[in-house]
Automatic annotation (TrEMBL), chains A, B:
UniProt protein name: 7-cyano-7-deazaguanine synthase
Top-level division of the source organism's lineage: Archaea
Pathway: Purine metabolism; 7-cyano-7-deazaguanine biosynthesis
Residues noted as binding Zn(2+) in the record, renumbered to the chain: 191, 199, 202, 205
Length: 227, 227
């Protein structure tokens, strides 16, 4: 059976991506990174999703708090709410974590090679996250080249393949695909904040809510207040 | 002042590389990774080297024990001594850590970008470690492309530059360069094993000893027994 490492954050996109890997016939190893996130909600979601699929789940802790310049790794920077996000959107968002996808793909590549796997699935999206340089097709093409020339299996002619099934999809398309594949969206967590329920106000919640609305599907997760 | 992140393992090569960065006029941030090494000797060496240069030193812990296929991260695989190494040398060595340099460069890239740095120095060597795919020039060229297209500073026109000062040098040339630059070689640790003194028998010790011998310079570190 073909084997794939799936980067699983516990959000909508990575969960849909895991469902794609299963649907493509892969035995899945889920890989989650604890990189000094501001809350552990995502990891709990990732665990539930991996359990749902009876997938082996590896959680790697890596303290990335030395990356001071991102709101997702630093306590000093505030995750922007929708009201303050407009000025940020014109540039690269403050939630951009320097070299995050590069680091996660690197670990996934090591694991995949170690396990004799064939592919890495990553739920990057260049539509909604157009401000992130490491979510663009040219980044993944460049990284594929690194795996071709810089890993043992690459040099030996069978490089690990990076697969980005939702790279060019809108959020509504992702929601529809996830629903079609029966992905357990009730377990997913997309909110940038770590409350009991999703905040409904951060960029990530707004994107998600818009996606469900456009898809005409009810979001199974709960939101704070009147959202 | 220009700023560089230097990957510092505490060995001869990375210490020489740090000395090169200082000599090139950079303010240096040393970055060491604890990746489930079998001993902590290297990290102690790295600390002493960084202190010697009064460099900021960041140590990142990352449990890479989930990479079962390398002798440097797994307790189950034996680091080859010289006697058993010949069969391994024809292929990629068992001490190859899947995607290690990729992972270390990724973290260095994140740190460098976060700190507003200009360059990453890495003491990779394609002469003595010709069996490692991630020590070859084509790997570093491919990774540079990743930084150009996949990071914020790259997209904005000022990518972090990967500098590999000793990539094509023999071990003897490295020893001579280190000595010329006044690098504190007495603090360095190259041995794959974690004894009180260097073993003098592992591939890494043998390479180092050969380098010093060919350079006509006395190795300041102590070795076990009669070596």
């Amino acid at each position: 059976m073909k084997k794939a490492v799936v980067l699983l954050s516990g959000g909508l996109d990575s969960t849909t991506t895991l469902a794609c890997a299963i649907n493509d016939g892969y035995e899945v190893i889920a890989l989650s990174m604890l990189y000094g996130q501001r809350h552990s909600k995502e990891i709990e979601s990732a665990k539930k999703v991996a359990e749902h699929y009876h997938a082996k789940h590896i959680i790697v802790e890596m303290d990335m708090s030395f990356l001071h310049s991102s709101a997702l790794t630093s306590q000093d920077l505030k995750v922007p709410s929708h009201n303050s996000a407009s000025e940020v959107k014109a540039d690269i968002p403050v939630t951009y974590v320097p070299a995050r996808n590069i680091s996660m793909l690197s670990l996934a590549a090591g694991l995949c090679e170690s396990e004799g796997g064939d592919a890495i699935y990553i739920g990057a999206n260049s539509v909604d996250y157009s401000g992130y340089p490491d979510c663009r097709p040219e980044f993944f093409e460049a990284f594929q080249k690194v795996l071709n020339v810089g890993t043992k299996c690459g040099v030996q002619g069978s490089p690990v393949k990076i697969i980005t099934p939702i790279l060019s999809m809108s959020k509504a398309e992702i929601v529809k695909l996830a629903t079609k594949l029966g992905a357990p969206l009730q377990y997913t967590w997309s909110c940038y904040n770590g409350g009991e329920k999703a905040c409904g106000h951060c960029d990530s919640c707004l994107l998600r809510l818009k996606g469900f609305a456009e898809a005409g599907i009810k979001d199974p997760v709960e939101y704070e207040g009147s959202i």
